[in-house]
Design a protein that fits this description.
407 residues; Aspartate Aminotransferase, domain 1; Aspartate Aminotransferase, domain 2; four-stranded antiparallel beta sheet; 12 helices; globular; binds ligand PGU
Length: 407
C-alpha cells in the first residue's frame, strides 16, 4: 500500500500567492466591472530589454543550425555563463569561482531543494517573516513538528521587527541551517556587513551553514551595503548563496537562476569539497540543466550593454518603490524598506490584522497586496506592497489609497 508524505498535512494552508489570487477572484466575482490594481506578488511587468531579447534570439537561432545545435548540457550550466557570473562577483569584491556556480531554472526550486543535502535532524533557523519556501520545504522534509499559533514546532524563528531594524540577533542556542534573505523579502531590509558578520562568526563557530538568498541584490544602490555574503571574510567556509535573473532581467517567466556552493564550505561532518560534491550529485541526478536558449539570454544580461539596460529597469522599479513609500507616508502610514529593495513593508493602520487590512485595501481601494502574516508570525500587523508594476498602475493604486482608504 502506498502511503503519502504526511508532512504535507502539517502545512498551514495553501501556498500564500495562490491564496491571494483566490481571494481576489472571489472579490471580483461579487464586484463585477471593478478594476483591481495588483501590488501583491513580486512579478516583473516590463518588457525584456532589447540586448537580452537579442541574446534569447541567438539562443533560438543556434538550435536551427546543425553546426551550433545543442541538446542536453551540463546540469551545472554552460561554462561561459558560469564564468560570466563568477566575473560579476569578483568585480564586486567577492571571491567566487565558475566551478562553484550551479546554474538552474529558479531560485525558488533551489531554495526549496538545497535542504535535501542536509540531514533530517538539523535544526533550522529562519528570519521571521521570511519567503515561505524556506519554511515549507523544511516542513515537507520532516524537520518540524506541527503548526501552532506561533509557528511550527521545532523551527527556530528569528524575529525581525521594528525594534531590531528587521534584522535578527544570532540564535541563543545551537542551530545548524540558517536562512537569511537580503535585501529581504518581505521587509525590504538590507543587512549591513556588520550584521552579516555576526552570523558568519556564529556559523563558523558552530559549523552551521547559512543559506543566503540574494535574489534582490541588484536592487542595492548604497555602495556600503553588501550584495553578496562572500564580500565578508570567512563566508566561503559557511555560506551557500542563491540568486536569480528573475527580478533583475524580467526572467520570472523565462526562468534562470544560480546557486553557489564554495569548495571551502563545510558542515559538522563535511570537510571542504563535500557539500559541493553533494550538490553536484544532487543536480546531476535530479536536473538536466537550464534551457540552452535561456542561458544564452543570461549571457546577454551579463554583457556590458546588458548590465546597463537591465540596470535601468531595476532603477525603474526602485522609482516605483519610492512612489509607493512616499505616497503611503503622505497619509501617515509607517513604512519600511523600499529604498534598496523592491518591497515596501507597511504597518497596518489602526492595529488591523494583516488579512483584515488585505480585505479593507481590496474593498475600499481595489488594491491587492500581500498580508505580512503570510510570511510568518512576526509579519502579523504588517503588509507588503510590491514595486513590480507598470508606472501608471502603481500611480493609480497609490492615488486610490490616498483618496479611498478610510483611516
Ligand atoms: N527568492 C526570493 C527571496 C523571492 O522573493 C523569490 C520570488 C524567489 C526566490 C523566486 O525566484 P525565482 O528565481 O523566480 O524562482 N518571490 C516572489 C514570487 C512568489 C513566489 O512564490 O516565488 C514574491 O512575490 O515573493
Amino acid at each position: 500500500m502506498a502511503k503519502i508524505n504526511s508532512n504535507y498535512d502539517k502545512l498551514a494552508a495553501g501556498y500564500l500567492f495562490p491564496e491571494i489570487a483566490r481571494r481576489t477572484s472571489a472579490f471580483l466575482e461579487t464586484n463585477e466591472g471593478v478594476q483591481v490594481m495588483r501590488l501583491g506578488i513580486g512579478d516583473t511587468t516590463e518588457p525584456i530589454v532589447p540586448v537580452v531579447l537579442d541574446g534569447l534570439r541567438q539562443g533560438v537561432d543556434k538550435l536551427g543550425n546543425a553546426e551550433t545545435y545543442s541538446g542536453y548540457g551540463a546540469s551545472e550550466g554552460v561554462e561561459s555563463l558560469r564564468e560570466a557570473i563568477a566575473t560579476q562577483y569578483r568585480n564586486g569584491g567577492a571571491d567566487v569561482q565558475a566551478s562553484e556556480i550551479f546554474v538552474s531554472d529558479g531560485a525558488k526550486s533551489d531554495s526549496a531543494n538545497i535542504q535535501g543535502i542536509f540531514a533530517k535532524g538539523n535544526v533550522v533557523a529562519v528570519q521571521d517573516p521570511a519567503y515561505p519556501v524556506y519554511v515549507d520545504s523544511n516542513v515537507i522534509a520532516g524537520r518540524t513538528g506541527d503548526a501552532t499559533d506561533s509557528g511550527y514546532e521545532g523551527l527556530v524563528y528569528m524575529p525581525c521587527r521594528e525594534e531590531n531594524g528587521f534584522f535578527p540577533e544570532v540564535p541563543d542556542g545551537k542551530v545548524d541551517l540558517i536562512y537569511i534573505c537580503s535585501p529581504n523579502n518581505p521587509t525590504g531590509a538590507v543587512a549591513t556587513k556588520d550584521q552579516l558578520a555576526t552570523f558568519v562568526e556564529y556559523a563558523r563557530k558552530n559549523r552551521a551553514v547559512i543559506l543566503y538568498d540574494s535574489a534582490y541584490a541588484a536592487f542595492i544602490t548604497d555602495p556600503d551595503l553588501p550584495r553578496s555574503i562572500y564580500e565578508l571574510d570567512g563566508a566561503r567556509e559557511c555560506a551557500i548563496e542563491l540568486n536569480s535573473f528573475s527580478k533583475t532581467a524580467g526572467f520570472t517567466g523565462v526562468r534562470l537562476a544560480w546557486t553557489i556552493v564554495p569548495h571551502d564550505c563545510v558542515a559538522e561532518d563535511a570537510e571542504p569539497g563535500k557539500l559541493h560534491a553533494l550538490w553536484t550529485r544532487r543536480q546531476n541526478t535530479f536536473f538536466n540543466g537550464a534551457s540552452n536558449v535561456v542561458q544564452q539570454g543570461g549571457l546577454a544580461v551579463l554583457g556590458s550593454e546588458g548590465l546597463v539596460q537591465t540596470g535601468e529597469q531595476v532603477a525603474f522599479y526602485l522609482e516605483n518603490a519610492r512612489i509607493i513609500r512616499e505616497g503611503l507616508q503622505s497619509i501617515g502610514i509607517t513604512t519600511y524598506g523600499g529604498d534598496n529593495a523592491p518591497y515596501v513593508w507597511m504597518k497596518t493602520p489602526g492595529g488591523l490584522s494583516s488579512w483584515e487590512f488585505f480585505d479593507k485595501l481590496l474593498g475600499e481601494c481595489h488594491v491587492v497586496g500581500t498580508p505580512g502574516s503570510g510570511f510568518g508570525p512576526s509579519g502579523e500587523g504588517f503588509f507588503r506592497l510590491s514595486a513590480f508594476g507598470h508606472r501608471q498602475d502603481v500611480e493609480q493604486a497609490i492615488a486610490s489609497i490616498q483618496t479611498n482608504l478610510k483611516l
